[in-house]
Specification:
By secondary structure, this protein is α/β, with parallel strands linked by helices. Helix content is 23%, strand content 27%. The protein has a five-stranded parallel beta sheet, covered by helices on one side. A hairpin with a 4-residue loop joins strand 14 and strand 15. The mean pLDDT is 95. Bound molecules: flavin-adenine dinucleotide.
Length: 407
């Protein structure tokens, strides 16, 4: 069997590894548009601040040799010809497949103008991040403006601040990480950012990067402009599906897949940031672009290729911010009809409840017990009997076990 995997991110590599582990008899070719061994994007900031390779090249730089995979880096797929079971490369070469895995991940979503101007950077891939950090390390960049205070925007802001760059973040919402955090937790994150030296301009809408050929300023909708040595777009991510146009694949924001991660094309699965899957908790279809979802989907796809009838349980909504110096965790919904909160010193813990069931929680400062809460949430357990304890740092498995034994 000839298996082609488009993409060498966490999703694609997990498929390749799983196929080998499960003894699938396949020649495996894995393609990546980027010129690097397979890497883990969440480790990029750490890599640029410490130079440590072990976490970014998470399976080892030689992983493809060890797995006997024909890995072609710097090889972009231009289009798909499903009727011929063929992928067409940028070079014009064609590769035939029996099974195809679409694991092309996500790229910068740029709803503002000028992101293609020279001098506008992003932090969505190792290629893009390397180009930004190379300019910083050559001393060209003393100041940077970052558009977007989502988790990638904050991560790059903290990294640049640590590298001695004067950072300004521009965010159109009235709080940082508006899609993920409730306003109260967001205000803690904002304070931490300010303490680390970043400037943050909330309720400030960027109109676009401007310049002739090369970016010269960030124009704001207010009519003002901000100038800096470097400009970073951190305006969101979108599935990388351009090359699938005309293939007949069913895609909306991402590639639509069924419970087995199959697309509508024969023998073609989609996994990771590129795939639109149901949410494990709400059932709603969406792309939740996080590492654990990519890896879980890669495992299911490998099992399917090995002939098992595996079903994907659904994506989870879960984020944690690692670089603030204080742990911050966001799981599930960021509001509920009831809220339990605990505040002490720098710690804030909030649990959101609907109809006696946990629908989400936000922790800053102390994330202990998060595993138990997540498990109760996913099981849709009735927590009414111990709801008042849920947000306390000492809440744990013992509370749940006691209630179950007592009932
Ligand atoms: C800065 C940053 C920090 C992050 N931090 C976290 C975190 O803390 N926790 C967390 O859970 N998640 C985090 N994420 C998200 C996480 O990295 C992604 O969810 C995960 O990488 C998705 O894996 P993937 O394999 O689907 O896609 P990707 O990692 O995006 O990999 C896609 C692959 O496809 C290749 N490709 C794309 N188009 C083509 C083409 N046409 N032809 C050939 N190859 C192609 C790319 O070169 C790449 O190899 C972070 C992401 C970034 C950018």
């Amino acid at each position: 069997m000839q298996l082609i995997i488009v993409g060498a991110g966490p999703a694609g590599l997990t498929v390749a590894e799983g196929v080998r582990r499960l003894g699938v008899d396949a020649d495996v070719t894995m393609l990546s548009a980027e010129p690097y061994p397979p890497y883990a994007p969440p480790a990029m900031a750490d890599y640029f601040s410490t130079g440590r390779e072990a976490t970014i090249f998470w399976k080892g730089k030689d992983v493809c040799d060890r797995l006997s995979i024909d890995y072609r880096s710097g090889t972009r797929v231009a289009r798909l010809e499903p009727d011929k079971r063929t992928v067409v490369l940028d070079s014009g070469d064609r590769l035939r497949y029996d099974h195809l895995v679409i694991a092309s991940g996500s790229s910068l979503y740029a709803p503002i103008g000028g992101t293609d101007l020279a001098g506008v950077f992003n932090f969505k891939s190792l290629t893009a991040a390397t180009s930004l950090i190379t300019s910083v390390k050559t001393g060209e960049v003393q100041s940077a403006v970052i558009v977007g205070a989502g988790f990638i925007g904050l991560e790059v802001a903290l990294l640049l601040a640590d590298l001695g760059v004067e950072v300004t973040i521009v965010e159109m919402a009235d709080s940082v990480m508006p899609a993920i955090l409730d306003p109260e937790t967001a205000s803690i994150v904002l304070d931490l950012l300010l303490e680390r030296g970043a400037k943050v301009r909330l309720e400030t809408k960027a109109a676009g990067f401007a310049g002739s050929g090369r970016v010269e300023q960030l124009d704001l909708e207010s009519g003002q402009a901000i100038a800096a040595d470097a400009y970073v777009a951190a305006t969101g991510v979108k599935p990388s599906i351009d090359y699938l146009a005309g293939s007949g694949i069913d895609a909306d924001w991402g590639v639509r897949v069924d419970d087995h991660l199959m697309t509508n094309l024969p023998d073609v699965v989609a996994v990771g940031d590129v795939a639109e899957t149901p949410d494990r908790f709400t059932g709603e279809r969406y792309v939740h672009a996080i590492f654990p979802n990519a890896v879980a989907q890669g495992s299911v796809a490998a099992e399917r290729l090995a002939g098992f009838d595996s079903v994907y349980e659904g994506a989870e909504s879960m984020n944690s911010l690692k670089h603030l110096g204080v742990p911050v965790m966001a799981v599930g919904a960021r509001t509920g009809s009831e809220e339990r909160r605990w505040r002490g010193g720098d710690t804030l813990r909030k649990v959101f409840i609907e109809d006696g069931r946990i629908v989400g929680f936000r922790f800053a400062g102390d994330t202990s017990g998060a595993g138990v809460l997540r498990s109760l949430m996913l099981r849709k357990a009735d927590v009414s009997a111990f709801a008042d304890r849920l947000a306390e740092p000492s809440f744990g498995i013992a509370d749940v076990a006691f209630r179950v034994l007592a009932s």
